[in-house]
Write a structure and sequence with these properties.
The complex is a heterodimer of chains A (about 250) and B (about 550). Chain A is mainly α and about 250 residues long. Chain A contains ten helices and no strands. Chain B starts with a strand and ends with a helix. Classes of the chains: A mainly alpha (about 250), B alpha/beta (about 550).
């Protein structure tokens, strides 16, 4: 029952201290080609205005780019394709629907042998949870309202019409920590179960070869116990920097 | 007329005591603060709302939400920057800490129960014996192992483990399929002379007691079991209910009313916010070390020696990670991990005595290591978000992030191991009420003051190179071993907060009211009819997962309360 502690691997202050030992070699940015289209959201938005949604979609697509956002990502869907903006809108509006859309149901989805998608039936909140989520979502809502305005302002009026390089510069600026928050939510919209509104078509899981929920089928003894065979890591500059950080810190 | 008993909490210890007392004819009500996510709890296999859903756990499903039920953490009495928020993450729901667990159920050792007699004192620490020895608790271990269904292979246990925790027979079930990542690191352990074995765990490897065999879905530690292949506290809870006990969930006990040397009633708040005061002949508290102490302090239970909340123990964890560049280890399939080693729980491990002496200690111990396991994508991605801010500050996002996710050095190519370290009991490590921070009901929250002592630091310093060595012997291309719960006393890290689920002490058992809170059967020293049934009563932490011992101790003690 200990492995929540796994979350602390490489986390926090220890990593910061170790990173200080490394040369500050940075990775080259990627050039970007012009964008073909902005995807259309099929369902109406709960909370966000269309203008806010457009800014959030473009910003999230710089953080987690797909084929329309970075030439290196051809064949690799990103936040735009996963519909991260719908995930964020669903979260911000979670208390305005019934049952509240905070905790997906159970025990199964219909992706791994289940006959119905139980996860699509959300579990309503109890009083303690409702109190917590009211506070949390009010804070998020105001952070998004202010953050979108800041992104527009820093981009000279309209974030969505800025160039990729200008967008990146604005995002690195991270006004009042909004981009850090947006990135955390974009990650959830990319790699959480699709019942929460993102990970459309499971593109997030597919891109990283993660099977997602596995009940009620589970795994066979052979799948659990045997090697999947050789699958050599293909070096890329970012992963190499991380490996160097790990090797450098080992034993210190 | 039967004894009117109120049990606070429905976790492993509380449910075990409830089972014993209900069977003995008590008129018993269980008040559980958390919600109930199971259907008919008297059935062998209740339907459940738990699922393979990482975001649900990250959103504090069935856990206290740190926004309105925070805790405060300090590294010492003089820590001027306490942390407010998520501090230690045990479940708050029907079934308690045995809901979000991967059900590893080792036994404690003879030297845990008679630590002072068998190993001796350690300067600065309050090393004590338990009120009973291994021989006395062994039959209760067997009873709990049958009750909750434990898999494992006694014949494969190392001589060291069997010497310190002898077994009179086999476990109820044979081990399920070994996890590939666990086999890889078990191989590395053998190469460097260590002794891996299939871990004992309360998970079905075949149909058992009306519940199915585990299908190794991979969402184990941190997740409720969607198919009830892991039953935990629900087994004793079911028996309590079948004996006539009543369970009220979403019912928060806020005060135990006392008169002289007796508790008279319990005050609790229901789901709609209404307060009730209900008379009781007997009160059992099983809220876990931290919440039980909080309730004792909120109730101003007699505490003439100021011992309530002291001698709090976690397990001073170390996380080891091996990165494998030639293959993916698919540690997302399985039961978190399937193998352990016990070598580092041995005070006589080669070199350990000498290293202890060099640190001014007569001996030290770490604890068992859980071999194998990894993170899931949301945790992995969150790590990359933090790491990119360090290694790529000019653009900490974009294609660099996606490359990391696809390479998956910290998930699919990661082999994780977790070393427990025995925490010695120190009077300074404690739980009290925070003077400022209150929860959403306006009640003072628990404040935790905790830092490792010389024993913990010396043991960890000695064993961290071993963690690296065994990962290298397993074929890892890169390795790292980091204390999972660093504090400001650890040189390489600034303070972070313990997120361990192993919490012990605070209501410790003992014969001397000046150094303990409860007596030799877990009864409050100054209240004749108040009993504690959780890890709070532990006089020492051992070096192994505590839940089996929490249940066995609750059974041993509660059989003497009637």
């Amino acid at each position: 029952m200990t492995s929540i502690s796994r979350r602390n691997v490489l986390r926090g202050g220890s990593l910061a201290a170790l990173a200080a030992l490394l040369p500050g070699e940075l990775l080259a940015g990627c050039s970007s080609s012009s964008r073909a289209t902005v995807s259309r959201r099929p369902s109406p938005l709960l909370v966000l205005s269309a203008a806010e949604a457009a800014v959030i979609e473009d910003a999230a697509a710089r953080l987690i780019p797909g084929p329309l956002d970075d030439p290196e990502e051809v064949g690799h869907p990103g936040a735009r394709e996963a519909n991260v903006v719908r995930y964020i809108d669903t979260m911000l509006g979670a208390l305005s629907v019934s049952p509240q859309a905070v905790f997906a149901g159970g025990p199964f989805s219909n992706r791994a042998g289940g006959t119905t998608d139980d996860m699509a039936e959300f579990i309503g909140l109890g009083p303690a949870e409702a109190d917590a989520w009211k506070s949390r979502l009010e804070a998020y809502r105001s952070a998004y309202r202010r953050g979108v305005a800041d992104l527009d302002r820093l981009a000279g009026g309209d974030f969505t019409s800025a160039s990729d390089a200008e967008k990146d510069a604005v995002l690195v600026h991270d006004p009042e920590g909004f981009v850090t928050l947006l990135f955390a939510h974009a990650i959830e919209g990319m790699y959480a179960a699709p019942e929460y509104g993102g990970n459309a078509g499971l593109v997030g899981w597919r891109d990283i070869s993660f099977p997602g929920d596995s009940q009620p089928r589970g795994y066979t003894a052979a799948e659990v116990s045997r090697s999947d065979g050789r699958d050599p890591y293909v070096p890329d500059p970012t992963s190499e920097t991380l490996l160097a950080l790990i090797r450098d810190s080992s034993g210190k | 007329m039967s004894t009117r008993t109120i049990v606070v909490g429905s976790g492993p210890g509380a449910s075990t005591a409830a089972m014993v007392l209900a069977a003995a004819g008590h008129d018993l009500t269980i008040l559980e603060k958390g919600r109930n996510f199971f259907a008919d709890l008297t059935s062998l296999r209740p339907a459940t709302l738990f699922s393979n859903d990482e975001l649900k756990t990250d959103r504090s499903f069935a856990l206290p939400d740190p926004i309105n039920e925070p805790r405060v953490f300090r590294t010492s009495e003089t820590d001027l920057k306490p942390t407010v928020g998520l501090v230690q993450g045990l479940s708050q729901t029907v079934g308690g800490g045995a809901v979000h667990w991967d059900a590893k159920t080792p036994r404690y050792w003879d030297i845990d129960f008679k630590k002072l007699s068998l190993l001796g004192p350690i300067p600065g620490a309050a090393v004590e014996d338990w009120p009973f020895d291994y021989g006395e608790i062994a039959p209760f271990y067997e009873e709990i192992e049958r009750l909750i269904g434990v898999q494992g292979d006694v014949a494969a246990l190392p001589e060291l483990t069997l010497r310190h925790a002898p077994r009179s027979g086999p476990l109820p079930m044979a081990p399920g399929p070994p996890q590939y990542s666990s086999l890889v690191v078990a191989g590395g352990c053998t190469k460097v002379g260590l002794h891996p074995f299939p871990a004992a765990m309360a998970i079905n490897s075949r149909e058992y007691d009306g519940r199915p065999a585990c299908n190794n879905c991979g969402f184990c530690s941190g997740y409720g079991c969607p198919i009830q292949a892991r039953v935990g506290a629900l087994a004793p809870l079911r028996r309590a209910l079948l004996s006539g006990a009543e369970l009220r969930d979403s019912s928060t006990v806020v005060r135990i009313e006392t008169s002289g040397s007796r508790a008279t009633a319990v005050t609790w708040i229901d789901a709609t916010g209404h307060r009730h005061t209900e008379a009781a002949d007997q009160v059992v508290i099983g809220g876990n070390s931290i919440e039980t102490v909080r309730l004792a302090l909120l109730s101003s239970l007699p505490d003439p020696h100021q011992t309530t909340g002291r001698y709090l123990m976690f397990h001073w964890f170390t996380d080891g990670s091996g990165i494998f560049l030639d293959e993916r280890l698919h540690a997302h399939r399985g039961r978190d991990h399937t193998h352990d080693i016990d070598d580092f729980a041995d005070p006589d491990f080669p070199g350990a005595r000498a290293a202890a002496r060099a640190a001014g200690l007569p001996y030290f111990r770490a604890g068992k290591i859980e071999l194998g396991g990894t993170d899931r994508p949301l945790d992995e991605a969150a790590q990359y978000q933090r790491i990119l801010a360090i290694i790529s500050p000019k653009r900490p996002f974009g294609v660099e992030f996606k490359r990391l996710m696809r390479s998956s050095l910290l998930r699919d190519r990661l082999l994780g191991i977790t070393m427990m370290g025995e925490d010695l009991p120190y009077a300074t490590n404690r739980v009290d009420l925070d003077p400022h921070v209150r929860d959403w009901r306006g009640l003072p929250v628990a404040r935790i003051t905790y830092g490792p002592g010389a024993h913990e630091l010396a043991a960890q310093a000695f064993y961290i190179p071993w963690v690296v060595r065994l990962l290298e012997a397993s074929g890892a291309s890169a390795t790292i071993a980091i204390p999972a719960d660093p504090s400001s006393r650890f040189a390489i890290a600034e303070a972070t907060v313990p997120q361990t689920e192993h919490v012990m002490g605070g209501m410790r058992m003992g014969n001397d009211p000046a150094t303990s809170v409860t007596d030799s059967v877990g009864r409050h020293h100054f209240l004749d009819n108040v009993f504690v049934a959780d890890g709070g009563v532990f006089p020492s932490s051992g070096g192994h997962n505590p839940t089996l011992t929490i249940m066995a101790t609750a059974m041993r003690n509660s059989r003497q309360w009637t």
